[in-house]
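Private note to self, pasted from the team thread so I don't lose it. Backbone tokens:
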């Protein structure tokens, strides 16, 4: 059975990732992951390794849950996509906790270049040989994509107006490039889809 015949499962509740897939003709089954998104103590990971580790945790959690949450996909086989996107400039920048945090984050990104790194984990999961015994992970592919984003100068007034009109609390780096804030990006090196959180150009070959 080829991946094109399998159910495509998005291990994310992100509406933006789902929209990108749908815009390219795919109809994913959305099964958000409940995986722990913390890094275990003692693991010294680079930003790229961090994104890939978290993407793998998400995809694996969903692949293991298929018999309970998507029994038909477990029986017929599925391709599970896990993605984790982080923003990096001197350190990993997460999602803002509140308005003050969003203000501090966007202040730190102005007049300079930061990296947007997406880790991707693709798991081909097939039915177990013995009925009722769950799924078997047949193949796992892990990679990352990086886009460099350079912002211009802007004021605290600009930031607060944006944050209050477009709450960024579910977005790493406190912004959405596809929103009005995108006007501050004076240079983008790499995939814009990756900044949104789903590097479709890198994933697409595995969906054929």
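Design output:
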């Amino acid at each position: 059975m080829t991946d094109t015949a399998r159910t495509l499962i998005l291990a994310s509740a992100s509406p933006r990732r789902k929209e990108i897939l749908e815009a390219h003709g795919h109809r994913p089954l959305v099964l958000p992951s409940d995986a722990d998104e913390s890094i275990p103590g003692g693991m010294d990971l680079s930003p790229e390794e961090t994104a890939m580790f978290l993407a793998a945790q998400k995809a694996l959690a969903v692949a293991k849950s298929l018999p309970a949450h998507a029994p038909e996909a477990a029986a017929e086989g599925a391709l599970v996509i896990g993605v984790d996107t982080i923003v990096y400039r001197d350190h990993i920048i997460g999602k803002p906790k509140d308005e003050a945090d969003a203000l501090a984050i966007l202040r730190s990104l102005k007049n300079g270049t930061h990296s947007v790194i997406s880790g991707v984990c693709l798991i081909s999961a097939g039915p177990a040989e013995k009925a009722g015994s769950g799924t078997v992970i047949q193949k796992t592919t892990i990679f990352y994509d990086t886009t460099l984003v350079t912002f211009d100068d802007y004021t605290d007034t600009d930031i607060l107006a944006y944050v209050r009109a477009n709450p960024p609390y579910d977005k790493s780096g406190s912004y959405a490039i596809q929103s009005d804030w995108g006007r501050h990006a004076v240079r983008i090196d790499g995939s814009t889809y990756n900044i949104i959180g789903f590097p479709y150009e890198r994933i697409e070959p595995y969906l054929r």
